[in-house]
């Protein structure tokens, strides 16, 4: 092109509109596991380039469908040993609700042969018992699952419906017992006292009480009962107007029991075997429901450890270890958290020191379990984290 005159260079502005907001991903943090598959947390933010500068924007301005994952899989090295499991057993019942179990064993990742379980004791282990359903029973709609005792109760030991109506005339709520909710103001107190339909979504902490779940407006109504760790809860169904043929049902669930039913509910006794119990009612026709009477007593069997803790919402602080420095910690200490069914749980690690980031991190870790889904997450090292539940119950285990 030398013989041809070279034109002058020009720069023209082609578009003055700024680029739309986009997702920005920071490098992933440390892996949650020192060996095997783990999770690494990465920070995802919505940013926009304005005048050559990166400006942070609200997340709703970026396309929600294109948002990257905040946790990505990671693996540092293959674990030398790992937990392995047998196939699930058949359901324990031929009809209704039962349980399935499976055997766990420790094996070498190199030879794939079983070894002494001591080699795997530092690693988190998946569940070995789960609920199952074998279909409806021909005569009884909700058979008792292991851990859920159903016993007849003499009618004379419980108040009649007429007596309960007298309580209503006295303007006293039937859902007796403190509920985990904000205290009403002076102007709202009268309305709150007359609110017999506001039991849904509440947590009851009294030793005894009556919960009236009839006439609620919502299709699903869930309540929770909580007591100290050393106690267990018994619930009696005083009355039931559930329409079983329409699919209306009552569900009782706890850490050691699970039962559904509709027919033969009145004057039946359900024992939780633990200190918490969730009752969920599903109705189709407005006005139907059940009236429950609950009480607590000292647990017949010890289902907890001395270092375990029970926390009820709405907020609290968890410090570990809980033993004195001169006491050896040979067991896994747990913290149980239960909030009102209408609420969810957030756990933020303010300060963690589980040892150096190296080959020994698998000896010390924090395991958080979402009770509603039974999914667990493991945190290692000095990782600060924020965990959120899908339900109203969570468990934390502190290993070593």
UniProtKB/TrEMBL annotation:
Keywords: Secreted. It comes from Ptilorrhoa leucosticta. SMART domains: TSP1 (SM00209). It comes from the Eukaryota. This is ATS13 metalloproteinase. GO terms for biological process: extracellular matrix organization; proteolysis. InterPro entries: ADAMTS_ADAMTS-like, Sperma_CUB_dom_sf, TSP1_rpt, TSP1_rpt_sf. Its main location: secreted.
């Amino acid at each position: 092109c030398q013989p041809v005159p070279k034109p002058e260079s020009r720069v023209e502005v082609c578009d003055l509109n700024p680029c739309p907001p986009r997702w920005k991903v920071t490098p992933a943090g440390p892996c949650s596991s020192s060996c095997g598959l783990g999770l690494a947390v990465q920070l995802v933010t919505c940013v926009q380039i304005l005048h050559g500068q990166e400006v942070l924007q609200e997340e709703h301005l970026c396309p929600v469908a294109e948002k990257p994952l905040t946790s990505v899989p990671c693996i540092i090295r293959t674990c030398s040993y790992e937990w392995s499991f047998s196939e699930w057993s058949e359901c324990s019942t031929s009809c209704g609700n039962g349980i399935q179990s499976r055997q766990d064993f420790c094996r070498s990742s190199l030879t794939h042969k079983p070894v002494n379980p001591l080699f795997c004791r530092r690693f988190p282990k998946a569940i070995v018992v789960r609920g199952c359903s074998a279909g409806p029973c021909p005569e009884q709609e909700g058979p008792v699952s292991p851990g859920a005792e159903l016993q007849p109760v003499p009618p004379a030991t419980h108040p009649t419906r007429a007596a309960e109506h007298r309580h209503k005339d006295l303007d006293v709520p039937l859902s007796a017992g403190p509920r985990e909710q904000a205290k009403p103001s002076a102007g709202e107190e009268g309305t709150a006292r007359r609110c017999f339909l506001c039991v849904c979504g509440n947590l009851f902490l009294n030793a005894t009480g009556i919960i009236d779940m009839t006439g609620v407006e919502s299709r699903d109504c869930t309540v929770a009962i909580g007591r100290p760790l050393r106690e267990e809860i018994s619930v009696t169904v005083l009355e039931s107007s559930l329409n079983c043929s329409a699919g209306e049902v009552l569900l009782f669930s706890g850490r050691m029991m699970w039962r559904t039913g509709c027919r033969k509910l009145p004057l039946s006794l359900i024992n939780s075997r633990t200190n918490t119990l969730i009752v969920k009612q599903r109705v189709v026709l407005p006005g139907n429901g059940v009236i429950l009477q609950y009480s607590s007593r000292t647990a017949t069997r010890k289902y907890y450890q001395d270092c375990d803790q029970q926390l009820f919402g709405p907020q609290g602080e968890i410090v570990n270890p809980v033993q004195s420095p001169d006491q050896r910690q040979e067991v896994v200490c747990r913290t149980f958290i239960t909030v009102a069914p209408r609420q969810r749980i957030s756990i933020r690690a303010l300060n963690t020191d589980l040892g150096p980031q190296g080959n020994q991190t698998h000896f010390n870790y924090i395991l958080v379990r979402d009770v509603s889904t039974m999914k667990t997450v493991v945190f290692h090292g000095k990782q600060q984290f924020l965990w959120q539940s899908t339900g109203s119950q969570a468990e934390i285990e502190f290993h070593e």
